[in-house]
Design brief:
The complex is a heterotrimer of chains A (243), B (349) and C (293). Chain A has 243 residues and is α/β, with parallel strands linked by helices. Chain A has 9 helices and 10 strands. Chain A has helices at residues 43-51, 73-79, 96-104, 111-125, 140-152, 170-185, 197-203, 221-226, 228-242, and strands spanning 5-14, 17-27, 32-36, 58-63, 66-67, 81-83, 158-162, 189-193, 206-211, 214-219. The model of chain A is unreliable at 239-243 (pLDDT under 50). Chain B has helices spanning 9-27, 31-56, 65-82, 86-108, 115-133, 135-138, 162-184, 186-196, 198-203, 208-234, 239-242, 245-258, 265-285, 291-306, 310-325, 329-335, 340-348; strands at residues 144-145, 236-237. The mean pLDDT of chain B is 88. Classes of the chains: A alpha/beta (243), B mainly alpha (349), C mainly alpha (293).
Chain lengths: 243, 349, 293
C-alpha cells in the first residue's frame, strides 16, 4: 500500500547550522507516527519543511502524488495537510467559534456551513461550552485545544501536532491521548512531535527518532526505546524520568 | 435577523441616528456647521476605506492619499478634458485606484514588517511628483479649479452643498454596509486572521498575500471615491493637497481615533475629529500655521498610548448597555442581536 | 548628455549620498535594536537643522562649530524620546509602533511650522560657494565634500563602537537575532536609550553638515526621512553597512534623476528602485537569507 506521506532526503541549513539532514520517512494512511528527539533535533523544523513554513534546500515531501516542497503553507493545508504550532497561536481578538470558522472556511465558503463544521469540531475537542469566549481569554490548555480544533476544521487527511501535550498534567494528558485516538477513528492520519514519553508509548504506532537533524532510529515504540543509540542520544534520561 | 422589528432598540436606535444625520444640516442651516458635516462624511468615507486594509487586515498604510488623489485626479481630468460627468468619472477613478493598488500589493504583500508602510508613503509621493512633472496634463503645482456650472447634479455641484452631503452620506452608508458584509463572511474572517497572525492564518489555508490584496482593492476603491467628493467639495485640485501627507494622516486618524478594525470606528472618528479640526482651523489656522496637524498628532499619540481600541472601544459597551435598557430590549435579547464578544465582556464584568 | 554632466551628477550624488547614509544608518540602527522603523527620523534631522540655523543666526556660530553642540543635544533628545515614548511600544504590535513614530514626526514638523513658519532659510558662510575645480568643467563643492567626509568618518566611528564595545556588541546581537534579546548582562533599557540616542546624534550630524549648502524648512525632514526609509530597504533593514552603501547608491540615483528627469521629479527614480527591490530582492542588497516571508 503506498504511503500517504513520503518524506525523501529532506535537508535544510540555517547559515552554518544543519537543522535537518537527509531525513526520510513514510507515514501510512491511518497511522499515528511520533517524531521524537532531544531539543534542537530538528523536529519542529521538519514540520516547518513539510508544511511550507520553511523551504527545503533539497529533498521531496510527497503527499499522494504531489510534491509539497515549494508550496505556500496555505496551499499545503488545502492539499489536506494541516499543522498546529508548538506555542498555540489563536487569533486573540476572535471568539473561539470565529477562530475555528476561519479554518472551516477553507472548504466551505458559506458562513452557515463553516459555523456548523466549527461547532462539530469544537465538540470533538471539548470546547463546545466556550464558543463565545474571546480566544485570548482562554487558558493555555484551552488555547491548545482550540489550535487542534482550528486545524481539524480544515478537513485535513493528515494532521501534524507539535507538542500538544507539553505542560499538561497526567489527567489532562490522558484526555489529549484519547483525543488523538479519536482522530484516528475519524479516519485521520496523525504525526505528533511530543516529549511526553508516556503518551507516545500509549498512542504511537511507530516512532521516528531525530538527533542533530538526522534520523537515528525508526520502528515500533518498543524497539525504539531499546535501541542503544536512541537511549544514548535522548531517551536515557527523559524516559526514566517519565516512567 | 429575518425581519426588521421596529420595536427593537437594535433597529430603532440606528434608524433614529440615521434620521438625525439626514435632518441635521436642514435643521441647522448654518454654513459652517454644514461644511463640518460634509467634511466629516468625506473623511469618514476615506477612513472606512483605510480601515478595511489597515484595520481589518492589519496592513498599515501611511500613504492612502495615493488612492484618494488617484480618484480625485481621474474624475477631475475626465471632467475637464472629456466633459465626463463626475457621477460617472468617480467610478473610473475608483477603478484606476484599484489598478494602482496592484503593483503596491505585488511589491509588499509577500513581506511582513514595515515594507508596506514605506511602500505606501513612497507611492503617494511618487504620484505627487508625477502630477507635478506632467503639468501640461495635470496642471502641475498650480492645480486647477473644477469647471463651475450652477446646479449640475451629475457633477455633484449643487446650489447649497446639501446634495453633496447626501451623496457623501449615501456612499458612507454603502461602504459601511459593504464592510459589514465582508466582516460577516469568509473574506472578513480571513482579513482579521491575517491581521492578527499571518502564520497561523496560512496554516489553516489562508493565502495571505491574496487576502491582503483583496482588502487593498476594496480599500483603494472606497478611498478614491472620497477623493472625488473632496474635489467636488473644494472645487480645486492640486498635487500637494490630494496626494499630501495631511490626507494620509486624516485617513489613519479617523480610523484609529474612532476604533481600528471596527465597523463604525472611522465614521465616529470623523464625526469627532472634524469639528475639532474645523474649530482649530477657524480659530487658530490663520494665526498659527500647522495648528490642525498639531492637534491631530497629539490626539493620535494620546489614543495610541492610552486607548489603542479607540472611541468605539469605550462607546461600544455603553451602546449595548443602553440598548439593553431601552423599551423593547426584550426583543433583542430573544434574538441575541448583541455581538458575542459584548455578551462575554458583559458577563465577565 | 555630455560625459561632464554625468560625472558632475555622479559626484554630487555621492556627496549627498554620504548624508543619506548617515540618516539611514540611524533608521537601521533603531530598527535593528528596537525592531521598528522610526518614521520621525527625518524630523529629528529637521530639528537639528533648525538648531544649527538659529545658533548661526542668533549666536553667530559656524555650523562646523555648532556640530559639537547639536550632536550631543540630539543624543539626549533621542534618549529622552526613547525613554518617554518609544519604550512604551517596544515589543508591541505594528500599529502602535508605526503610528507613534508617525505622529511624532507630524508633531515635530508642525511645531516647527508653528514657531518658524513655512519660510525657507539658509545659513550663509564664507565657504558656502567654495569649490574645487578637479577637471575641466567639473567642480566639487567644499561644504558638500566636508559633509561627505565627516559622514564617512562618523559611520566608521559608529562601526567601531558597535564592534569594540560591550554595549555596541549587544546592539549588533540584537539586530541579528530578531526573536531573542541577546542582551545578557546588559540593561536592555540602556541599550535602547543609547541606540536611539546615537541614531538621533547621527541625524543631528547630518542636519548640521547640510546647513552650509542646504535650505531648512519645516517639511525638509519628510524629504530626507522618505529617502532614508527607501535606503534601509534597499540596503537591508538593520544592516549598518547596507545603509551607508544604499545611501550612496540612492544619492547617485537621485542626482542622475534630477539631472535627466527633472528637478522636482528626479526622485521618482528613487522610488522606482524601491519598487524593483521589493519585487526582485526584498531582503535588500545585503540580505543573504531573504526576508522573512
Amino acid at each position: 500500500m503506498p504511503a500517504l506521506l513520503r518524506v525523501e532526503r529532506l535537508s535544510k541549513r540555517f547559515g552554518g547550522l544543519r537543522a535537518v539532514q537527509d531525513v526520510s520517512f513514510e507515514v501510512q494512511e491511518g497511522e499515528i507516527l511520533a517524531l521524537i528527539g532531544p531539543n534542537g533535533a530538528g523536529k519542529t523544523t521538519t514540520f516547518h519543511l513539510i508544511t511550507g513554513f520553511h523551504r527545503a534546500d533539497s529533498g521531496r515531501v510527497l503527499f499522494g502524488d504531489s510534491d509539497l516542497v515549494g508550496l505556500r503553507p496555505s496551499a499545503v493545508c488545502l492539499k489536506g495537510v494541516c499543522r498546529t504550532f508548538q506555542v498555540a497561536r489563536p487569533f486573540g481578538d476572535m471568539t473561539v467559534l470565529e477562530n475555528v470558522m476561519t479554518g472551516a472556511f477553507s472548504r466551505r465558503p458559506r458562513r452557515a456551513a463553516a459555523a456548523s463544521r466549527a461547532r462539530e469540531v469544537l465538540g470533538l475537542v471539548g470546547l463546545e461550552g466556550k464558543i463565545d469566549v474571546l480566544a485570548r481569554d482562554l487558558t493555555t490548555i484551552d488555547q491548545r485545544r482550540l489550535e487542534v480544533a482550528r486545524a481539524l476544521s480544515t478537513d485535513p487527511r493528515l494532521v501534524l501536532l507539535d507538542e500538544t501535550m507539553a505542560g499538561l498534567n497526567q489527567a489532562e494528558a490522558d484526555v489529549a491521548v484519547a483525543l488523538v485516538r479519536r482522530l484516528r477513528e475519524e479516519g485521520l492520519t496523525v504525526v505528533i512531535v511530543e516529549h511526553v514519553m508516556r503518551a507516545i508509548m500509549a498512542i504511537a504506532d511507530r516512532i521516528v527518532v531525530l538527533d542533530h537533524g538526522q534520523k537515528i532510529a525508526e520502528g515500533l515504540p518498543r524497539e525504539v526505546v531499546d535501541d542503544p543509540e536512541v537511549v544514548r542520544a535522548y531517551l536515557g534520561s527523559s524516559y526514566r524520568h517519565a516512567s | 435577523m429575518t425581519r426588521l422589528d421596529l420595536r427593537a432598540p437594535s433597529v430603532y436606535v440606528p434608524m433614529l441616528l440615521l434620521v438625525l444625520a439626514l435632518v441635521a444640516p436642514v435643521a441647522v442651516p448654518n454654513a459652517f456647521f454644514r461644511s463640518v458635516l460634509i467634511e466629516a462624511a468625506i473623511f469618514a468615507l476615506l477612513g472606512v476605506g483605510w480601515n478595511i486594509l489597515g484595520g481589518y487586515a492589519g496592513q498599515l498604510s501611511l500613504g492612502h492619499a495615493a488612492y484618494f488623489g488617484m480618484g480625485a485626479y481621474t474624475s477631475t481630468l475626465l471632467l475637464v478634458y472629456g466633459g465626463v460627468a463626475t457621477i460617472y468619472g468617480m467610478w473610473v477613478g475608483a477603478v484606476m485606484a484599484m489598478l494602482l493598488s496592484i503593483p503596491i500589493g505585488l511589491a509588499s504583500f509577500r513581506l511582513r514588517g514595515p515594507y508596506f508602510a514605506i511602500a505606501s508613503i513612497a507611492t503617494a509621493e511618487t504620484l505627487r511628483l508625477l502630477a507635478l512633472k506632467f503639468r501640461e496634463f495635470t496642471f502641475g503645482a498650480l492645480g486647477t479649479t473644477i469647471p463651475l456650472t450652477p446646479n449640475a447634479p451629475l457633477n455633484f455641484l449643487f446650489a447649497d452643498k446639501l446634495g453633496l452631503y447626501y451623496t457623501a452620506v449615501t456612499l458612507v452608508l454603502v461602504a459601511v454596509a459593504a464592510t459589514a458584509w465582508i466582516e460577516r463572511n469568509k473574506l472578513g474572517f480571513y482579513l482579521v486572521a491575517v491581521g492578527q497572525d499571518e502564520d497561523a492564518a496560512e496554516a489553516v489555508g489562508v493565502r495571505s498575500p491574496w487576502v491582503k490584496q483583496q482588502a487593498n482593492f476594496v480599500s483603494a476603491f472606497v478611498s478614491a471615491l472620497a477623493g472625488t467628493l473632496y474635489v467636488q467639495y473644494t472645487y480645486f485640485i492640486q498635487p500637494d493637497t490630494v496626494f499630501g501627507l495631511a490626507i494620509s494622516t486624516e485617513a489613519v486618524l479617523v480610523a484609529i481615533v474612532g476604533g481600528v478594525g471596527t465597523l463604525w470606528g472611522p465614521v465616529i472618528g470623523a464625526l469627532l475629529l472634524q469639528p475639532i479640526a474645523a474649530v482649530a482651523q477657524a480659530q487658530l489656522g490663520s494665526t498659527y500655521a500647522g495648528a490642525q496637524l498639531i492637534v491631530y498628532s497629539v490626539i493620535l499619540l494620546v489614543v495610541i498610548l492610552a486607548r489603542p481600541s479607540g472611541v468605539v472601544g469605550v462607546l461600544s459597551p455603553v451602546y449595548w448597555r443602553a440598548l439593553s435598557i431601552l423599551p423593547g430590549a426584550a426583543i433583542d435579547r430573544r434574538r441575541r442581536v448583541a455581538p458575542a464578544s459584548e455578551v462575554s465582556r458583559a458577563s465577565a464584568a | 548628455m555630455t560625459p561632464t554632466v554625468v560625472i558632475q551628477a555622479v559626484i554630487n550624488g555621492l556627496l549627498i549620498g554620504g548624508i543619506y547614509g548617515l540618516v539611514s544608518i540611524g533608521v537601521s540602527l533603531i530598527f535593528g535594536v528596537v525592531k521598528f522603523v522610526n518614521f520621525a527620523h527625518g524630523e529629528f534631522l529637521m530639528v537639528a537643522m533648525f538648531a544649527t540655523f538659529w545658533m548661526w543666526q542668533l549666536l553667530g556660530l559656524d555650523p562646523y562649530v555648532s556640530l559639537f553642540i547639536s550632536v550631543p543635544l540630539m543624543f539626549l533628545f533621542g534618549a529622552c524620546v526613547q525613554q518617554v515614548l518609544f519604550r512604551r511600544v517596544i515589543g508591541g504590535s505594528d500599529l502602535p509602533q508605526i503610528f507613534l513614530t508617525f505622529a511624532l514626526g507630524i508633531l515635530l514638523a508642525n511645531l516647527a511650522l508653528l514657531f518658524f513658519r513655512a519660510d525657507v532659510r539658509t545659513v550663509r558662510t564664507p565657504y558656502t560657494d567654495a569649490t574645487i575645480n578637479i577637471a575641466n568643467e567639473i567642480f566639487i563643492s567644499w561644504p558638500r565634500l566636508i559633509a561627505f567626509l565627516v559622514a564617512l568618518a562618523l559611520s566608521g566611528a559608529l562601526f567601531t563602537f558597535l564592534t569594540r564595545t560591550d554595549i555596541g556588541q549587544a546592539m549588533r546581537a540584537a539586530a541579528q537575532d530578531r526573536d531573542t534579546a541577546m542582551l545578557v548582562g546588559i540593561d536592555p533599557d540602556r541599550v535602547y536609550r543609547v541606540a536611539v540616542g546615537l541614531a538621533s546624534a547621527l541625524a543631528a550630524a547630518a542636519g548640521t553638515l547640510l546647513m552650509p549648502f542646504f535650505v531648512v524648512h519645516p517639511y525638509v525632514g519628510a524629504q530626507f526621512g522618505l529617502i532614508a526609509f527607501v535606503v534601509v530597504i534597499v540596503g537591508t533593514l538593520g544592516d549598518i553597512r547596507g545603509a551607508l552603501l544604499g545611501g550612496l547608491l540612492l544619492g547617485v540615483v537621485e542626482s542622475l534623476g534630477i539631472q535627466f528627469v527633472g528637478a522636482d521629479s528626479g526622485r521618482i527614480l528613487v522610488f522606482l528602485i524601491l519598487l524593483l527591490t521589493l519585487i526582485l530582492r526584498p531582503s535588500g542588497l545585503f540580505g543573504g537569507r531573504g526576508a522573512r516571508t
